[in-house]
Amino acid sequence: MKDIGSIIERQNLIHKLIPSYENVGAFAYDKYHPIEEIHAWIDTMVQTYPSLATSFIV
Fold it and tell me: What superkingdom heads the lineage (predicted)?
């Protein structure tokens, strides 16, 4: 890879334009997600499936 910076910038732009955590079924497991996005996805799962999912700090 010649210019990793431009690849990172493009990925960040994609994350800003298409937050995948908003739709529980659309979360992409085959791409990198910033920790904030993972936390938001966990919160969404807990809200969507309260009888199945809980969130806790280890």
Answer: Eukaryota
Q: How far apart are CA 39 and CA 56, in angstroms?
A: 11
Overall number of domains in the chain: 1
- Give the model's confidence band at 54: pLDDT under 50 very low, under 70 low, under 90 confident, else very high: very high
DSSP type of residue 31: S
In-domain check, residue 58: no
40 within domain boundaries: yes
Q: Note the pLDDT tens digit of each residue in 4-48.
A: 888 888 877 766 665 555 555 677 788 888 898 889 889 988 998
